[in-house]
Amino acid sequence: MIKKRMKANFSNFRSEQFSFAHDPILILENFWSAAERKQFREAMDHSSWMALADMPPVAQAFQNCGNWLRAEIAPTEGSRFIQRVGLPCVAEYVESFPNITGRHINFNYYSYSVGDCLSTHDDTDDAYTYAQGKIPPTRRLALATYFHEEWQPDWGGELILYKATTGPNGKKHLEVSQCITPSPGSLVIFTVPQFHRVCRVDTLAKDHKRLSVAGWFMTEH
């Protein structure tokens, strides 16, 4: 059975009528306007980027994934971002877990060029945080949203979500449940854990960058 998803144009979406408990995948088209995407791209131009190769624990967890870039979001843009993506359905789901002692968010800019990808994982192994000697909070919702100006179907970079099943021999099998194109201005939020990956950006993309913000809503108990 393929997991349910909700896909809608943001102008027609009613957050108060949506529940991640029933639909673990939410895809909203045209969440960001062209002007908003431009503002975030300009902020990215002034950010300090770090390559995957310069983050050893992360590079160890995601081998042979190219050399994508990550940057921190400045406070001004970060505040604007959280105000927009902090939908009522997000708060309702995060607050549904018992005995919460703290709430956390972690979002960053990401830039994927030709050859970059992200291998299959389910967001439960935070190697980078553990490497810093910390116990990370529990990730509840994963988010990815796209700020590039253009993205063609044959440029790759799709977000693939999987359905996990267990065979008679006890081995886990993954079947593709969703293939989501990184459409400019779209927003994807899904429950954790859920296996997923980012397809490699094709050479046909040339100099185009897959620009996104990705991260998690988390709770501490």
Give the SSE map.
Layout: E1 5-9, E2 25-29, H1 34-45, E3 49-51, H2 56-61, E4 69-72, H3 75-85, H4 88-94, E5 102-112, E6 118-121, H5 127-131, E7 138-146, E8 159-166, E9 172-180, E10 187-191, E11 196-198, E12 210-220
Parallel strand pairs: 1-2
Antiparallel strand pairs: 2-10, 3-4, 4-5, 5-12, 6-11, 7-10, 7-12, 8-9, 8-11
Keywords:
single chain; 221 residues; alpha+beta; Jelly Rolls; eight-stranded mixed sheet; four-stranded antiparallel sheet; 5 helices; 12 strands
Can you describe this structure in just a few lines?
The chain is 19% helix and 35% strand. The protein has 221 residues and is an alpha+beta fold.
Can you walk me through this structure?
The protein is of the alpha+beta class and 221 residues long. The chain has a single domain, classed as Jelly Rolls. It is built from five helices and twelve strands. An eight-stranded mixed β-sheet has the order 1-2-10-7-12-5-4-3, covered by helices on one side. Strands 6-11-8-9 form a four-stranded antiparallel β-sheet, with no helix packed on it. Strand 8 and strand 9 form a beta hairpin. The protein is globular and about 45 Å long. 29% of the residues are buried.
CA radius of gyration is 17 Å
Q: Could you tell me how far the N terminus lies from the C terminus, measured between alpha carbons in angstroms?
A: 32 Å
- Backbone shape: globular
CATH class: Mainly Beta
Number of domains: 1
Q: What percentage of residues falls in helices of 4 or more residues?
A: 10-25%
The CATH level-2 architecture is identified as: Sandwich
Q: What is the average per-residue confidence, as pLDDT, rounded to a whole number? A: 94
| Structural class based on helices, strands and sheet pairing | alpha+beta
Spell the H/E element sequence.
EEHEHEHHEEHEEEEEE
Output the strand order for the largest sheet. Answer: 1-2-10-7-12-5-4-3
Approximate strand percentage: 25-35%
